[in-house]
Amino acid sequence: MNVPFSSRELQLILTWKDGTEWPDEIRVLNKLRLALTDAIPLQLSVVQAGIVRIWAEEHTSGHYGGGQIFNLEESSIIRKLDTAIAGLNKLDSD
To answer: Contact 57/67 with Cβ under 8 angstroms?
Structure first.
């Protein structure tokens, strides 16, 4: 699925995860970096979008107390992820 993040949103997401040893997360980080450096649309599977969604939850739960979001960029990222995941789930159920 195409997740239409801006370059600023991609940069922000990359700050949420410094590194990992998990192969799935490494693949997601590589896709994010590639989309940012090559200015290409970000293509994620539903599992990969879910990984980024978990990162967003982890990031926002700390400084906003349980996921309450006040930062417009973070809110936009979560909204785009939720829309992409819901759209794909709707296609799977049809």
So the answer is: yes
Buried b (16+ CB within 10 A) or exposed e, 84-93: bbeeeeeeee
User: How many Å apart are CA 40 and CA 34, to the nearest integer?
Assistant: 8
Dihedral of the alpha carbons of 20, 40, 85, 80, in degrees to the nearest 10? 100
Mean pLDDT (the chain, rounded): 85
User: CA-to-CA distance for 5 and 8, rounded, in angstroms?
Assistant: 8
Quick: pLDDT tens for 7-41: 999 999 999 987 788 999 999 999 999 999 999 99
**Tokens 């990969």 sit at which residue?**
48
Query: pTM of the entire structure?
Result: 0.82
